[in-house]
Design goal:
Helix content is 6%, strand content 56%. With 622 residues, the chain is mainly beta.
Length: 622
Amino acid sequence: MSKLLILVVIFINYIGSSFSKETQYLSSCTWENRTETPCIEITGKISNQSNLSKSGINKYVITRKEIEQIGAVDIIDVLKSVPDINITQSGPKGQQASLFMRGTGSNHTLVMINGIPINDQSTTQGLHDFGVDFIQTVQQIEIYPGSSASNFGTNAIGGAINIILAGDLKDSISLTTDKNTNYEFYGNKSFLYPNSTLNLKLGGVENKTISARGNRNGEKDEVKNYTFNVNYENFIENNLRFHTTTYFRKTKSEYDNSVNNQTGYLGDNRMGTIQLGVEKKYQNRISDYILYYNKYDRKYNERGTIDSYESEVVGLKYDLSKKISDKFSLGAGSEYKYDWGYFDNNGSYEASTKGNSNNFAVFTNFGWNFAKKSNLSIFARSDYHKYTHLNSTYKLNLEQSFGNSKLGISYMTGLRNPTLYELFGTDNFGYSGNRSLQAEKSNTYEVYSTIQLNEKISIILRGFRSNVENNIEYISNKYQNDKDNINLNQSGFNNQLNYKADNIDFNFHASLLSSKKENGSSQLRRPTKNYGFSLFKKNYNDLFGNYNINILYNHYGKHFDTHSSNFSTIEMDSTDIVDLKIMKKIYNNDWYLKVDNLLKENYQRPHGYNQDGRILKVGYKF
C-alpha cells in the first residue's frame, strides 16, 4: 500500500502544480462558433507509446460509424470479423462467451476500458466474459493482436482489446425491435459549455430467441442488459484537461444447466468503473495521470442455490510521452494496482476463494527515425507482483517505408500472472491454491507489410509465430507450472484487402492458424482457416431514392471441439453466416431493416449450445 500512497501524493501534487503559468501549447484548432474552446479529440489511451514509437504498435480500430453500419448488438458482433480472433458462446445473446486471440487461451486476452484493465479477478482463470458486454454506449473498439504486455501489462499474451467510452457530441436516440418484441435501445445527450462537455449515454437490450441447450424451439433463454455511461471533461487551462468516465453495466441472463435442466438458472452480472484523469499538453510533451476503481458483483441462482463472485481493483497510472527531436521520441510511466477477490460456490461442486494481490510496474519506450524512411521502436516494462515477484517484458519493432507502403518485423514477449483463484482457491475435492506459482510467459515473432496499391486499394499482410511456456495447469489436485520444457505453439498468417471509393467501402479478410497443444495435436475451438468480407454501399434508384446497404459475411472453418455429453473430441463443421442491413434517411432520421443469419444457418458453437437462426429486425435513429 505504501507505493499506492506515494503515487496518490504525486497525483495530488501534480494537480496543484498544474495551475502554474508555464509556457503551454495548444494546437490551432477551434469550434466554428466557439473561438476560445479547445478542440476535443476522441483517441484511445495507448500506454507506453510516444510520437515516433507508436508506428510499432499493431492495432485495428472499429469506429462508432462502423459499429452502426453492421448493426452490432454486443461486442461479439464487432469482434467476430477480426482476422486474429475466434469466438464461441454458450447459447444466444447474453450467454457466456470465450475469445481466443491468435490461438492462445481465453485467459490470454487483456480487456480494457479507456486503456485501464478490467479483467475480473473473481473468475477462475481471469478470463473476460464477452457475452455480457453490449455495444450501445461504446464509442470505439481497438484490437491489439499479438503480445502487448510491454504496453498494457499482464494477461496480454494473445493480445489486448480496448473499449473506448469517449463522449459522443451528436445527440441521438435509436430503437430496434423484432416480431417477438425483443429490443435494443440507445440514447445519447451532450451538454456543451465554453470550457467543458458533459456526455450521458443510456443503453438497454432485451433478447429472448431460443433455448441454449436441447430443443431450439423449447423454452427460450432471456437476457436483459442495462448500461449507463457518463463522460465529463473540463479544460482548466488551454492545455490542461480534467477528464472522468463513469460506467455501469448490469446483465441478467437465463441459462441452461444441461439438456434436462433448462429452467431455474439465472445469472446476474454487474460491473462498474470510475476513472479520474488529468492530462497536460506542452509543445513536445503529453503527461496523463489516471486514478481508477473497478468492481464486479456476480451472482448465479441455480434453482435456489446462490453462488456469489465479487472483485475490486483500485489503481493509479501515469503516462509521459515526449518528442525530443524530429528523430527521437521517448515515453515513460508507472502503474500500481491492488486486486481483491472473493467467491463462494455452493452447488454440487463446492469451491471458494478469498485473497488479494498487488502489482507495481514501470515502463518506457523509445522511437528513433534513424533514416529517412526507417523507424526503430523499443518498448520495455517491469512488473513486480506480490507473489510472482519481478518479471520484465519488451518489444522491438523495425519498420521500413517504400513510398506509400511499408515492411516491418517485431519481436515481443508477454506474461500472465496467476489469478486469485489459482493462488488461494479451495474446493470439496481436495484442491488447494498454490501461492508459489510463477507467471506464464510467451515469445512472439512477427512480419507485416502494408501495401498501398493506389488511392482506393490497400493490402495488409501479417505472419506470426509464438509460444507460451511455464503454463499453469491443474496437476495432482493443485495448480502448478508445467516444467516439461514443452510449449504451447501458435503460428498464423492473415491478410486484409481494403477498397474504398466515394460510394463503396469493401473489406476482405482471411486467416490461417495453427494452434498446438504440448502433444502436437490441435487445440480445441481454433479453426485452421477463417475468411469473410464486409460491404457498405450507397445506392440510388427511382423508386426508393437514396439508401445504403451493408453485407457482412463470415466463414468460420472446421475445428475440433468437446462433445457436450460424452466429452470425446469431435470435429465441428464450418459455418457461413451472412448479416444484411439496409438503411434509408427520411427527414434526416435513419430507418433501417436488419436480417441476422440471412441464410438461416443451424449450428452450435461450442457443441451442445444452440446459436440464433434467422432474425428480422427494424430500427429507427433520431
